[in-house]
Design brief:
three-stranded mixed β-sheet, 36% helix, binds 3-hydroxy-5-(hydroxymethyl)-2-methylisonicotinaldehyde, alpha/beta
């Protein structure tokens, strides 16, 4: 039975400063009418783009917390994982997906590993190997171009052609997930705008949504993108409409932020654009690819 308010188990870290992970996931999903139950993988003073941060790894705490949820007989409409505190946590998350499969939740794995061709500072190749295992259990994955390359053992190519990205998406779907959504894909047809390319294995269709490039990089936008996807899919939207909503939300957030003089490491000014998640889809711009 579905919960009267859709309920998500959100397996991400809590970074106190910098608008990433749970501080992005919770407000977005709450604004979309989804109950978020966080299972924090680590507590950090800030996300890892800041130096000298203080981090507490919660690897040994996850299972006792999960055991309590089992005693409470909880069920979830979605299980959504992101940044993990250690490679060892993957086995716990795999077991969690298995143990909470009764309600047939939508399993969304954002395989957070890195960006711009490099792994995040706390991660090692061991995390890449374990993340390859985790994606096999997902229905939906949302890697950026860097993460897609790591998962496939390919070299990161910032200028990758569309035909190759489609092959990458198919190969990622062969690993297990039914829907593969690759972000930060350059769109050569549109002056190297950035785009999102998605493959739905069920109907063998590819979709693309492009948006204008803005010369700034904000941490946490991958978390915001995947969170809007989760909320939209749980609200019953189609894959291309969910893509449109997620891309539009990030574009709006980036534009709301870019004109200010704040530091990019603080992330997009999420609080200014959250209300837009309740508006009907403004303009749909998705394309079906050949
Ligand atoms: O946005 C992904 C993310 C999540 N959590 C932490 C991070 C990052 C990216 O830098 O450092 C702690």
């Amino acid at each position: 039975m579905r919960n009267s308010v859709p309920r998500v188990a959100a397996i991400h870290d809590l970074s106190g400063f910098g608008r990433a992970s749970l501080t992005v996931v919770i407000p977005i999903l709450s604004s979309m009418g989804i109950q978020v139950c966080p299972l924090p993988t680590a507590v950090l003073s800030s996300h890892s783009a800041y130096k000298d941060l203080h981090a507490i790894d919660l690897t040994d705490e996850l299972q006792p917390m999960i055991d309590h949820w089992k005693r409470l007989n909880l069920d979830f409409d979605a299980i959504y994982s992101g940044y993990l505190g250690s490679a060892g946590q993957v086995d716990t998350v795999k077991q969690f997906i298995h143990d909470f499969s009764g309600n047939q939740p939508l399993v969304v794995v954002d395989p957070v590993l890195g960006d711009n061709g490099a792994l995040y500072s706390a991660y090692t190749p061991a995390m890449v190997d374990k993340m390859k295992e985790l994606v096999t259990l997902a229905d939906v994955i949302t890697p950026n171009l860097t993460e897609a390359a790591f998962l496939l053992g390919e070299v990161h190519q910032p200028e990758i052609e569309l035909s190759e990205i489609k092959q990458w998406a198919r190969r990622l779907a062969e690993m297990g997930p039914n829907k593969v959504i690759i972000t930060s894909v350059p769109d050569q047809m549109k002056n190297n705008n950035t785009s999102v390319v998605a493959f739905n294995q069920t109907d063998n269709r590819f979709w693309r949504v492009s948006c204008d490039y803005i010369p700034a990089h904000y941490p946490g936008t991958g978390d915001a993108f995947a969170s809007v996807m989760v909320g939209s899919l749980l609200q019953g939207d189609s894959l291309p409409i969910a893509l449109d909503r997620a891309v539009q939300f990030i574009a709006l957030g980036v534009r709301a932020t870019f004109g200010h003089n704040g530091r990019a490491t603080e992330g997009i000014l999420l609080e200014k654009v959250l209300p837009s998640l309740n508006a009907p889809v403004q303009m749909s711009s998705y394309q079906l690819l050949d």
